[in-house]
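Saturday, quiet lab. Running sequence design on the C-alpha cells for the scaffold JK sent over.
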C-alpha cells in the first residue's frame, strides 16, 4: 500500500522498480492501480481460468439403446453400462426401439423397460418415466444423490 499519489509519481515508481502500472479499478475515486509484472499477471489469470474450467465438469446425457427382444445377458451388460454412466454423474437416456410387428406390443415393451428402470433404482432416480414416443419408448434417469 503506497497510498494516494499522482499518476506521474506512480509511473516513475513503476519504472524505478522495473514493473508495470496496471489499473485495477478505474471507476473508483481515486482509481486503484497496482505495480506488477503485467505478463506474469496475465499468465496467472489464464491459469486460474483453466483451473476453474477443469473443476466445472459438465454432465452429459448418455444414451443406451435396448430392443424388444433383448436377452438377459445383453440386458445385464446394458445395466452395468448405465450404472457406470450414473456413477460418473451423467444423466442416462434409455431408448427402446420397436420395429415392425413389435409396435403392436407396446405395453409389453413398457413393462420390460420399467423392469429395467427398477433394477437401476439403487443408483438412480427416474426423471422421466417410460413413455411411448413414436416408434420408440424413452425414459430418462438421473444419478441419485448420495
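Result came back. Writing it out in full:
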Amino acid at each position: 500500500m503506497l497510498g494516494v499519489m499522482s499518476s506521474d509519481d506512480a509511473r516513475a515508481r513503476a519504472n524505478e522498480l522495473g514493473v508495470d502500472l496496471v489499473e485495477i479499478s478505474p471507476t473508483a475515486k481515486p482509481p486503484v492501480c497496482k505495480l506488477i509484472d503485467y505478463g506474469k499477471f496475465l499468465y496467472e489469470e489464464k491459469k486460474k481460468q483453466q483451473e476453474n474450467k477443469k473443476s466445472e465438469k459438465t454432465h452429459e446425457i448418455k444414451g443406451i439403446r435396448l430392443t424388444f427382444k433383448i436377452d438377459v445377458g445383453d440386458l445385464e451388460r446394458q445395466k452395468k453400462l448405465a450404472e457406470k454412466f450414473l456413477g460418473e454423474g451423467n444423466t442416462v437416456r434409455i431408448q427402446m426401439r420397436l420395429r415392425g410387428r413389435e409396435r403392436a406390443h407396446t405395453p409389453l415393451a413398457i413393462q420390460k423397460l420399467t423392469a429395467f428402470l427398477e433394477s437401476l433404482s439403487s443408483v438412480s432416480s427416474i426423471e422421466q418415466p417410460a413413455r411411448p414416443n413414436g416408434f420408440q419408448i424413452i425414459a430418462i434417469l438421473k444419478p441419485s444423490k448420495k
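Notes for JK: The beta strands are 20-25, 32-36, 61-67, 91-97, 124-133, 136-143. Helices lie at 7-17, 38-55, 72-87, 106-119. Ask whether to fix the surface positions before the next round.
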